[in-house]
Amino acid sequence: MNRSQLIERKHQIIAEIRQTRRELAAAHQRDDHRNAGRARYLEGRLERLMAEEYRLRLAIDRSR
Predict the structure, then answer these.
(1) Distance CA 49, CA 23 (A)
(2) 15-57: pLDDT as tens digits
(3) Band of the pLDDT at 64, cuts 50, 70, 90?
(4) Cβ-contact 53, 14 below 8 angstroms
(5) Over the stretch 2-14, which tens digit does the pLDDT of each residue have?
(6) Alpha carbon 21 to chain centroid distance?
(7) For position 32, what pLDDT does the model report?
(8) I want to staple 56 with a disulfide (CB 3.0 to 4.6 A). Which of 10, 13, 25, 50 is the partner?
(9) Is 59 exposed, middle or buried (0-12, 13-18, 19+ CB in 10 A)?
(10) HEC profile for the chain?
């Protein structure tokens, strides 16, 4: 990927992070037994997205 593609992907990931955080907050507010699994899934997704965003930041810095 070139620098502009990396930056575009980073923006997509940031949008996904925001959406996942909103979904996680909603799952925590409902806080019933059915949402416990959903909350765990969203927490894992959030961690993966944040890790990808970090890797993209490093790749963008290295592409200068």
Answers:
(1) 14
(2) 999 999 999 999 888 877 778 889 999 999 999 999 999 999 9
(3) confident
(4) yes
(5) 999 999 999 999 9
(6) 8
(7) 77
(8) 10
(9) middle
(10) CCHHHHHHHHHHHHHHHHHHHHHHHHHHHHCCHHHHHHHHHHHHHHHHHHHHHHHHHHHHHHCC
